[in-house]
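Q: Focus on the chain.
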Amino acid sequence: MGLSDIAAGIEVTAEQCDRGVATVDGTDEALADRLEPFADDLPCSAAEAATVVEAYAAGSAVDACGHAASVPPVTAAKALHLLGEQVSPVGPRGRDIVADWLAGDLARRTAMELVGVGEQTFALAAYVESHDPLPAARDAIDGALAPSDTDPLAEARSDVPDLL
């Protein structure tokens, strides 16, 4: 048996199918209804925040989530941050510099130069550093963003005894 016999029937595709993020939401209540108690603390309405979360769970970028909910991308990022997602536009060192600016240890212009970002990005980083996520709101969206405890592909995988 040669390589051509082994490779018979194998096809090469030029693109992959984007399947998104697999999530399981075991709640009966709509996401917007679960976010309603936090509407006063969110930068947008509960319905808009629900749309942002659903788009984010489907694999969309933060700016696309904002467009899907008809809110500015920075508002979508703020909502996701308050709901417990890591959306800081700067890395750990940048977060330290923003924290130093918030503490009054650095001038804004100096902090922006050290972080290497523009006005809008710096403003979002400052918001993320100065506002804590809402733990109860994170619990409300838990099923929408967190992966389930069960493995949906468990039946498709072999176990060690199957290999022996």
